[in-house]
UniProtKB/TrEMBL annotation:
<feature type="region of interest" description="Disordered">
    <location>
        <begin position="1"/>
        <end position="22"/>
    </location>
</feature>
<keyword id="KW-0472">Membrane</keyword>
<feature type="domain" description="KIB1-4 beta-propeller">
    <location>
        <begin position="114"/>
        <end position="352"/>
    </location>
</feature>
<protein>
    <recommendedName>
        <fullName>KIB1-4 beta-propeller domain-containing protein</fullName>
    </recommendedName>
</protein>
<keyword id="KW-1133">Transmembrane helix</keyword>
<dbReference type="Pfam" id="PF03478">
    <property type="entry name" value="Beta-prop_KIB1-4"/>
</dbReference>
<keyword id="KW-0812">Transmembrane</keyword>
<dbReference type="InterPro" id="IPR005174">
    <property type="entry name" value="KIB1-4_b-propeller"/>
</dbReference>
<feature type="transmembrane region" description="Helical">
    <location>
        <begin position="419"/>
        <end position="444"/>
    </location>
</feature>
Length: 447
């Protein structure tokens, strides 16, 4: 199929032209337009689909609008888009950003600046297929929402406060005011979408448990807590994956790889593979790369070389080192991210970016040569002001979820300062009443 001719200068409104070539393109049959649009969405990116709909009114009406379907229809999920902190301590939701957040496509390097008003009073605690998992009202109920950052579609989930009675004394050492915040500050989330019903699972790192909730009305509108203990570190295709390292105690010399699927009621983790510690030492990370899960370990007793294997091979009891990861770069920390190397110009080829295992600086490991080098220089680290100055650091900061909401605890003290200034206008009695209420909130107990 030949490309359409360029539009003539002085063309009128979108979709109108005197050029018969352009007119024929604009009048394509609706079923053909819809077929091309779906194929573009499947093979490309949501941004390509949006640009396709913007060509002319005929294509716009023939292709389904993502608005209203951005969350419930997985085809419209912005899977490879990652929200980035702005640097200079401007976390997403900072007042100076005026509700805007910046997103990076991890495959193409494209940037989008999107306005998200909810960030003014919500915290982004994780990302699921590019959807933002938001926490609001973090002092009382802990409302949870799934937000599509580009269409603005929202799906409400039960509040996290419904988990507190099920946790018993697990958070008793934490003041009542901070319990929901603490619970949400270390979360790995996955979501499955089937027949219009959304099931979300949360791996709660602070209590080593898994909770799930669904949008269907057949179950109680609350989060349901697992009876088993688990610490999954990776969400992949609607499931959670975890690694249990052999600890050497009680003759435990086998590494276990486990999978937790989307349940009606949570079932115990499914054992995928067991690998002897003598054959596979120190597995550390699970990371999604392309359409598969990679396992990263160190070779032998030394930490100078990294071993990368496919989880699918380990399930078959085969330890097959990978020599190439498709010209990608793996960023490793609390969460792991795969980024096309062309996105980061300072990191070339198949690399792993992580903290050096012995010297404690941000390093890159070259898979082909087995050599270590600095991922950034001192100028990139410190820059002219506080905060990241290198794209490598921006992406690496996304491996630590709490950097998405750096003002989590600061916002509380800012509010307290405002309330104290108001109370001070009432003299000594106002200050005494303020501190009495503050003491009740922080050290208070649940009813």
């Amino acid at each position: 199929m030949s490309s359409p001719p360029a539009p003539a200068s002085g063309a009128g409104k979108r979709g109108r032209t005197s050029d018969p070539g352009l007119a024929s393109w604009a009048s394509l049959p609706q079923d053909l337009v819809r077929l091309v649009a779906w194929r573009l969405l499947a093979d490309g990116d949501l941004l390509d689909y949006v640009r396709f709909r913007a060509v002319c009114t005929g294509w716009r009406s023939g292709a389904v609008s993502p608005r209203g379907l951005g969350v419930v229809d997985p085809r419209f999920h912005p899977r490879r888009w990652m929200m980035l902190p702005e640097g200079h301590c401007l976390y997403p939701g900072h007042p100076d950003l005026r509700g805007y957040a910046r997103f990076l496509n991890l495959d193409t390097g494209a940037w989008i600046l999107s306005r998200i008003p909810l960030l003014e009073d919500h915290l982004a605690i994780d990302s699921v297929d590019g959807l933002l998992l938001l926490l609001g009202d973090q002092y009382l109920q802990g409302t949870v929402r799934l937000l599509h950052p580009f269409t603005g579609d929202i799906v409400d989930l039960p509040p996290l406060a419904t988990l507190l009675p099920q946790l018993g004394d697990s958070l008793s050492c934490c003041p009542v005011l901070y319990r929901i915040k603490k619970l949400a500050s270390k979360v790995c989330a996955s979501a499955s979408f089937k027949d219009g019903v959304i099931t979300v699972m949360l791996a709660l790192g602070w209590v080593s448990r898994v909770a799930f909730a669904t949008t269907t009305t057949s179950l109680d509108q609350k989060w349901n807590l697992s009876e088993f203990w688990a610490t999954p570190s990776l969400a992949f295709q609607g499931k959670l994956y975890m690694l249990q390292e052999a600890d050497g105690y009680c003759d435990n010399h086998m590494h276990q790889f486990l999978e937790i699927g989307p349940p009606v009621q949570l079932r115990p983790p499914h054992l995928l593979a067991t690998i002897p510690k003598s054959k596979f030492r120190n597995p550390r990370y699970l990371v999604e790369c392309g359409s598969e899960i990679l396992v990263l370990s160190y070779r032998g007793a030394s930490t100078s070389r990294i071993l990368i294997c496919r989880l699918a091979d380990l399930v078959q009891q085969r330890i097959v080192p990978i020599r190439s990861i498709g010209d990608n770069t793996l960023f490793l920390d609390e969460r792991c991210i795969s980024v096309a190397s062309k996105v980061v110009s300072t990191v070339r080829g198949d690399n792993v970016v992580c903290e050096h295992p012995r010297q404690r600086y941000l390093a890159q490991y070259h898979i082909s040569s087995g050599n270590w080098s600095r991922a950034i220089d001192d100028c990139s680290l410190y820059g002219r002001a506080q905060g990241p100055s290198s794209l490598v650091l921006y992406i690496y900061s996304c491996c630590t979820r709490t950097l998405w909401y750096e003002g989590l605890f600061a916002s509380f003290f800012i509010r307290c300062s405002s309330l104290l200034s108001i109370a001070s206008t009432f003299g000594l009695a106002g200050k005494f009443f303020f501190f009495f209420l503050l003491h009740c909130v922080i050290v208070g107990t649940e009813e």
